[in-house]
Amino acid sequence: MNDPNIHQSQPIILALDTSARCTGIALAHGETIIESLVVPGDERRSERLWLDLSELLQSAGLTIAAVDLFGVCVGPGGFTGLRVGLAAVKGLAAATGKPIAGVTALEAAAFTAANLATTVCAMVGAYKGEVYWQRFAFDDRGLPVALSEPLVSTSTEAVGQVADLPDLVFVGDAVEAKAEVIREIAGARFRDETNALGSGWRIHRATYSIAEAVAHVAYLKWQRGAVETAADLQALYVRPAEAEVKLSLGLLGSKIERSRKAD
């Protein structure tokens, strides 16, 4: 993609996902994915991110100045990873003056089943074996529309909350590991036809990355004018970080005080 005018009618979108252990980056022209990559996260994640972004743009023959819209996964997910991703996108958006479309990990997961269901339950992995989950429907263009608030619980509790729904598709990175729970509660409603419309409960396995889904949802939000500035963008944590909980309980303060006394 070397034509400098190709993005005049459709935005060039740079999408980033650091909500999980891997870093996902996708470059799109409107609704078409141009390039994408997924790289393992490590302790040098924030340093490597800039190299990965440069590599992806260079592969597409573009510079950061060509980007019209930044998409970023705002959570829920790992606190450290989210901060890395949001800081990077805020900095790029502020430097270039371009807008941001914040997309939750649950919205991105739900989007992967937009053509397969009228109602989905998105489930992504949370801390200590729990799941973040939320129900969605879709508007006329496939943009996920929330039917409930994002919550965190055990998978059994999550599936139990939707047990009265006759037709439902489960999507997200936590679904595979929780398939037995879904099957057990679904009973006779469970269907093995994962990629076809129909009644009952089904599990959908996404064929593309969260970063690619973020790019798609960002495009749909851009079409509706639902974009933000760097100053407005906020993370979705669903619950406070463990360190924040300990601090509120005075546990970190006690630990610091014991350390001082030991010295």
Question: What this model shows, in words?
Answer:
With 263 residues, the protein is α/β, with parallel strands linked by helices. It folds into two domains: 12-105 and 210-240, 2-Layer Sandwich (Nucleotidyltransferase, domain 5); 113-203, 2-Layer Sandwich (Nucleotidyltransferase, domain 5). The protein is built from eight helices and eleven strands. The chain has helices spanning 45-60, 79-96, 105-111, 155-161, 179-186, 210-223, 242-248, 251-262, and strands at 12-17, 22-29, 32-40, 69-73, 100-103, 120-125, 131-138, 144-146, 151-153, 168-171, 201-203. The strands form two sheets. Strands 6, 7, 8, 9, 10 and 11 form a six-stranded mixed β-sheet that branches. Helix 3 crosses helix 6.
Q: What are the salient characteristics of this protein?
A:
single chain; 263 residues; alpha/beta; Nucleotidyltransferase, domain 5; 2 domains; six-stranded mixed β-sheet; five-stranded mixed β-sheet; 8 helices; 11 strands; 34% helix; globular; disordered N terminus; disordered C terminus
Radius of gyration: 20 Å
Largest sheet entry: 6 strands, mixed
Provide the CATH top-level class of the largest domain. Answer: Alpha Beta
CATH-assigned homologous superfamily of the largest domain? ATPase, nucleotide binding domain
CATH topology descriptor of the largest domain: Nucleotidyltransferase, domain 5
**Order of helix and strand elements from N to C terminus:** EEEHEHEHEEEEHEHEHHH
Number of E-type strands = 11
Helical fraction: 25-40%
Termini Cα gap? 61 Å
- The total number of structural domains is 2
CATH architecture of the largest domain: 2-Layer Sandwich
Tally of individual helices:
8
- Tell the overall outline: globular
Overall SS class: alpha/beta
Strand content: 15-25%
Average pLDDT works out at 88
Unreliable stretches: 1-7, 241-248, 254-263
